[in-house]
Amino acid sequence: MGRRVRVRDQGIGSWIRRRARKTPHRCAVVHRDLRYTYAQWDERTTRLAHHLRGLGVRRGDRVGFLGANHPALLETLFAAGQLGAVLVPLNTRLAAPELRHCLTDSGTSLLVHAPAFDAFARDCPVGRTVPVDDTYEDALARADGTPLDESVSRDDNAVIMYTSGTTGRAKGVVLSHGNITWNSVNVLVDADLASDEVTLLSAPLFHTAALNMTCLPVLLKGGTLVLEESFSPTRTLDLIEEHGVTLMFGVPAMFQQIAAAERFDAADLSSVRTMLCGGAPVPPALIRLYKDRGLRFLQGYGLTEASPGVCLLDAENALTKAGSAGLPHFFNDIRIVDRAGDDVERGERGELLVEGPTVTSGYWGPSEENEAAFADGWLHSGDVVTQDEDGYVTVVDRAKDMIISGGENISPVEVEKALFEHPAVADCAVIGVPDATWGEVGCAVIVRTPGAGATGEEILAFLDGRLARYKIPHAVVLTDALPRNSTGKVAKHRLREICATTAPPRPGAAPNTGRAVEPDDPGGPAR
């Protein structure tokens, strides 16, 4: 037998050490009053890896993180990576039952969490928890700082990111070290990031776009991360001036709020080179507004399953190709096919398929959606697109019923299942309707059980604590029957007409700000 060749650590867990040996004294991360150089951050992540190993974490184990943007989130990612373990970043906006599903489904064995979520952590289905408080810092101070050299390949799993599915409950997308590495390379090639980037991260890192499209590519280049726990347009302008921010990521609603801030016109934005936007098409007027300030505005289209970058619209064509998703990333390939799976002609509609080293190998655990989503080795996006003569892709419809509100994916099936638990709901359907601020918001059309007197508001209030607030519909219509076609399926086009003409906005509906809610906010985990 031949001698087994040992694989050294090729994963993202080694990135901080590799960066520290090149630029040890460069600032890696800023959070409030904290500043760590790459050398300091290398030591912290290594010590955390030793601490987690002392708590029993081994290769392949899942380690969860629950909290807003904080150095500890990234320290947990890199420490888990050094051990060959897998990070499960949790959406702080989910309700407690949704969080428990993610933890149980992934088999998470240890949860690192912000102190604000102590109550949830005490009752969650995880045997070991690590609060990010003084005890966290004490543990790092006592832990071994000797460099680890676990055998981690780029084919090993690095992250499981939960995303809403069309069949209901969230499903875990498994991203390997290689998927994330190649996505970062795509970003560096197509967005042309520099080694002196200073990126403002106020979009939540538990989402793949903020983590993989800006945070990790900037680290790979040796830039600086400025971490913010939540988004504020006024504070964004302050931080740009204070830290000389060169790059920031956001969804369209965030950039709209920044532009609407009282001191936007007077703010010093001279340091900013690039605004990277994703989650929904950007209105041309908003692009023009930022271009008038001399800023590059890049628009991305992606899927969690693709780590997430699929296409990028360059700044030079942001207006001439307005509404387009852009060109495929450098190392991605696409096809546009008809229902028979045959390629369509340029200009014709078809489903977008994606292939490349950034595409996940599948969903975590047994999933009925794996076979359909990855047929013939291509990721089936569920998005209907066209491609013009220059190769630019434009999304024209969604084959799936997913609602995308302020960059958040909402599964209508999941919301409908929750509504059916209310005794007054005999039948219901949820669709997305256009919204000037969030792109789309949910509208629920409900048929009440005979004799039920519950109001629409009372039925929606029932969802508080069961679903994240951003998933709760912003409007409700009570009707005698749902419109159906000859085969008995709900006629979604008729629902859109009904919601457009009769649905009032839900009084007091929580705006979908794209921020991580505070734990006392009803949108956070139940306490």
TrEMBL record:
Top-rank taxon of the source lineage equals Bacteria
Q: Name one GO molecular function term.
A: medium-chain fatty acid-CoA ligase activity
Keyword Ligase tagged: yes
Which UniProt keywords are present, listed alphabetically? Ligase
The identity of this protein, by name, is Feruloyl-CoA synthetase
Record-stated family: Belongs to the ATP-dependent AMP-binding enzyme family.
The chain positions of domain AMP-binding enzyme C-terminal read: 414-489
Segments carrying the region annotation (Disordered) are 500-527
- GO aspect biological process, one term: fatty acid metabolic process
